[in-house]
């Protein structure tokens, strides 16, 4: 993990969640939908600015629908990662984007605001809820670019 992380609450659980997040990012970059949904609870829900899905089958269908958008050789980038952790639940907030791994700048790929709620299960940490949104200027209806 190449980005700083702040942990609030239970430190050990926070470190476990940090490790889970790193593994999640790795699985996303493999673009294997079966592995991706394996990191989620059966009742996972996903929100973005245009849609909402509930349940693992709908989440899997969402990944399948957008799988052609992703390419090989990608990386998940994160900024300002904050983990709030208890022994059984965690909340992760950050800015994120999925982009090229080769370092070529792609300003057309925006940074998004991301939140993940995770729950500890018998199989380990799992994603219960995921939310991704683009900052938008409501007056112009255009994305607000985030520059780091």
UniProtKB/TrEMBL annotation:
Gene3D superfamilies (alphabetical): 3.10.450.50
InterPro entries noted in UniProt: NTF2-like_dom_sf (IPR032710), SnoaL-like (IPR037401)
Residue ranges annotated for the SnoaL-like domain, each copy included: 18-136
Pfam families referenced in this protein's UniProt entry, alphabetically: SnoaL_3
Protein name: SnoaL-like domain-containing protein
Origin species: Acinetobacter chengduensis
């Amino acid at each position: 993990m190449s980005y700083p992380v702040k942990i609030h609450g239970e430190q050990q659980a926070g470190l476990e969640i940090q490790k889970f997040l790193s593994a999640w990012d790795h699985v996303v970059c493999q673009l294997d939908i079966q592995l991706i949904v394996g990191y989620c609870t059966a009742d996972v829900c996903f929100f973005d600015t245009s849609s909402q899905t509930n349940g693992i089958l709908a989440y899997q269908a969402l990944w399948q629908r957008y799988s052609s958008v992703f390419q090989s050789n990608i990386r998940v980038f994160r900024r300002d990662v904050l983990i709030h952790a208890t022994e059984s639940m965690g909340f992760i907030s950050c800015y994120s984007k999925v982009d090229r791994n080769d370092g070529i700048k792609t300003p057309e790929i925006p940074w998004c605001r991301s939140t993940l709620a995770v729950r500890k299960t018998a199989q380990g940490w799992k994603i219960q809820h995921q939310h991704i949104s683009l900052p938008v200027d409501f007056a112009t209806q255009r994305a607000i670019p985030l520059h780091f």
